[in-house]
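Lecture notes, continued. The same structure-token format from the folding unit now serves as the input rather than the output. Read the line below as a description of shape only.
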């Protein structure tokens, strides 16, 4: 039970965290970081039960004081997103922090005229719907408890015009504007909403997919050369995510923050 008054900044030791896309990459690194910082409950979500159970067991073994849960669900589908949040709330007694780290099934840049029109619906739904659905699904509980943090992961494709990212950029821009607008609504209930926009992230499945395709490999090889401060990895993302969830960021909301090692500024 929380000892922090309603509306006051709460320590991560009280946080009950739900992470979509939490079984690999940035989501998994973030789950581990929350556990390391003393979060009492962490629920990770993914579509593959075997990978999810393995990830849960690994976190629980490394951080025995954290109660780690796994819920298998396709969070870009309405009914599954609703069930995911309900199961997380039942397991943890509520949700204080939502991290939307789900990655699209089509993450790599491709020139618009080369996109198969039959793929476009799936590309859009898998990239943006999780952010919208899960944010809505946790909103009632966060409003009732008068506290909460939502952190969306998008990318700098929504800020920088790049050939091959017309559709990706549009989706990322949608997540950014959603973040800003929701932050202005949700602040009335002491709910903060922020967004992180990386570029390429080392050590992730998306990185491997992107660097395996000729067009996107050329594009991101140039980006990596511009990252003079170092290419971002999943642990770097986890550090910023947990900072934004914690009390040190209690007055930050509606912000869209680039984390890209100096590839671009925006």
């Amino acid at each position: 039970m929380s000892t922090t008054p309603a509306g006051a900044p709460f320590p991560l030791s009280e946080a009950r965290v739900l992470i979509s896309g939490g079984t690999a990459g940035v989501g998994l690194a973030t789950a581990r970081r929350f556990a390391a910082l003393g979060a009492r409950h962490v629920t990770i979500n993914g579509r593959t039960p075997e990978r999810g159970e393995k990830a849960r067991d690994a976190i629980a073994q490394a951080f025995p004081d954290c109660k780690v849960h796994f819920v298998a669900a396709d969070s870009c589908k309405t009914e599954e997103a609703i069930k995911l949040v309900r199961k997380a709330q039942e397991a943890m007694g509520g949700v204080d922090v939502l991290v939307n780290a789900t990655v699209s099934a089509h993450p790599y840049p491709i020139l618009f005229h080369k996109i198969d029109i039959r793929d476009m619906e799936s590309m859009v739904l898998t990239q943006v719907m999780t952010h919208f659905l899960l944010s809505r699904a946790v909103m009632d509980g966060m409003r009732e408890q008068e506290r909460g943090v939502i952190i969306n992961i998008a990318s700098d494709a929504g800020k920088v015009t790049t050939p091959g990212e017309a559709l990706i950029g549009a989706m990322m821009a949608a997540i950014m504007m959603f973040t800003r607008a929701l932050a202005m609504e949700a602040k009335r209930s002491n709910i903060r909403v922020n967004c992180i926009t990386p570029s390429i992230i080392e050590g992730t499945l998306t990185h491997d997919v992107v660097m395996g395709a000729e067009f996107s490999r050329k594009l991101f090889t140039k980006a990596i050369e511009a990252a003079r401060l170092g290419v971002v990895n999943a642990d770097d993302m986890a550090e910023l995510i947990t900072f934004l969830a914690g009390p040190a960021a209690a007055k930050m909301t509606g912000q869209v923050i680039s984390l890209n090692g100096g590839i671009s500024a925006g």
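Point for the exam: Residues 12-254 form a domain with the Rossmann fold fold (CATH 3.40.50.720).
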